[in-house]
Design goal:
Layout: H1 4-12, H2 21-41, E1 51-55, E2 61-63, H3 64-79, E3 85-88, E4 95-96, E5 108-116, E6 127-135, H4 145-148, E7 157-163, E8 167-172, E9 177-183, E10 188-193, E11 204-206, H5 217-226, E12 234-235, H6 241-251, E13 253-257, H7 270-283, E14 287-289, E15 309-312, H8 314-327
Parallel strand pairs: 3-5, 11-12, 11-13
Antiparallel strand pairs: 1-2, 3-4, 5-6, 6-7, 7-8, 8-9, 9-10, 13-15, 14-15
Helix pairs in contact: 2-3, 5-8
The structure holds 2,5-anhydro-1,6-di-O-phosphono-D-mannitol (AHM) and magnesium ion.
The site of magnesium ion (MG) has 4 residues, from β5.
Length: 328
């Protein structure tokens, strides 16, 4: 079975002008993922569970593992100077990666949610990392906010790491989606899920239905009809988006995070949660939309902006969009 390293080399050779810079970014993410995976697996043993006592820019209390994962990914990317800027869910502002005059400027920027699924950290349930890679578009030597506010269609690559019963590294560069499982005994990721494709039909829907009372009427109508016996739907909701999405990609299904009274724009962040997942799901043959547009075509205005998020099998999204268009 091919390793992630071998897969990267094979793909790099397909591009004549490739400098290897992109592979280095994936190598750094892979390294940090292994350390986070190790830490997540022994979380109950050491004093790393629980809250740090601080809050992030979104007012959410930060967990020790959140902060640990953030520091680790940032260090892995900055120490090697393989990117010129990073934005993270756990940092208010984007981070400049300074290069000395003798060093070649990097062309890539990374947006990352270092440890997604905060509510599951303390209870031994799957967690994830989500990342998105773009090219710097501004001309000056330093990255600026606009470099991060690019539409999802401009992504060079996107991926997630799932810390589940096994640790899986899934990513796309726009030529399909491939998944690599970590063999923890030797610390190597192997190509276990080549060319992941969503099944044509889906029967799962994943949503936090406790917020039903304040969902838009269109979503309520869709949910009502999803309970029809002849559809044979089932609900599955872990509350860690990476796990919910990964399961739905393999089994077929729809993930929904609509606006509600608590989160009028939805809860999920466009730049480092919705866009990367949208790119992966589309590459696997599915669709990802907001209330009335394709997620990846939204022009971002803020680093931490939220967006209603619906993604999964194309047929299920088409069906949902029928409802959204009728009543909004
Ligand atoms: P987080 O970034 O604070 O972990 O929040 C994102 C997570 C997603 O993984 C998940 O889909 C969602 O929040 C669950 O939210 P809720 O608890 O409102 O259902
Ligand atoms: Mg998150």
């Amino acid at each position: 079975m091919k390793t992630l390293g071998e897969f990267l080399i094979a793909n790099q050779q397909k591009f004549q002008d490739s400098t290897g810079e992109f592979s280095k970014v994936i190598h750094a993410l892979r390294l940090a993922a292994k350390v986070v995976s190790h830490e997540v697996n022994k979380a109950g043993l050491v004093d790393i569970l629980g809250e740090v006592g601080t809050t992030n820019i979104q007012g959410e209390s930060q967990q020790k593992l959140d902060v640990f994962a953030h520091d680790l990914f940032i260090k892995a990317l900055t120490n090697r100077k393989i990117v010129c800027g990073i934005a993270s869910e756990e940092a208010d502002d984007f981070i400049q990666v300074k290069h000395s005059e003798s060093e070649k400027e990097s062309k890539y920027i990374v947006l990352i949610d270092p440890l997604d699924g905060s509510s599951n950290i303390d209870v031994n349930v799957s967690l994830g990392t989500i990342f998105s890679i773009y090219k710097k578009k501004s001309k000056g030597s330093e990255v600026v906010l606009d470099d991060f506010l690019q539409a999802g269609t401009e992504q060079v690559a996107a991926g997630y790491i799932l810390y589940g019963t096994s640790t899986l590294f899934v990513y796309t560069t726009g030529q399909g989606v491939n998944g690599f499982t970590l063999n923890p005994a030797i610390g190597t990721f192997y190509l276990s899920h080549p060319n992941i494709t969503l099944p044509r039909e889906g029967h799962i829907y994943s949503i936090n239905e406790a917020n039903y009372a304040s969902f838009p009427q269109a979503v309520k109508d869709f949910l009502k009809k999803s309970k029809a016996e002849d559809l044979n739907y089932t609900t599955r909701y872990i509350g860690s988006m990476v796990s919910d999405i990964h399961r739905n990609m393999l089994k077929g299904g729809l993930f929904l995070y609509p606006p509600n009274a608590k989160s009028p724009n939805g809860k999920l962040r466009l730049l480092y949660e919705c866009n990367p997942i949208a790119y992966i799901v589309e590459q696997a043959g599915g669709m990802a939309v907001s209330m009335d547009k394709r997620i990846m075509e939204i022009e971002p205005t803020e680093l931490h902006q939220r967006e209603p998020f619906f993604c999964g099998n194309s047929e299920m999204i088409d069906d949902l969009q029928g409802y959204l268009q009728k009543t909004e």
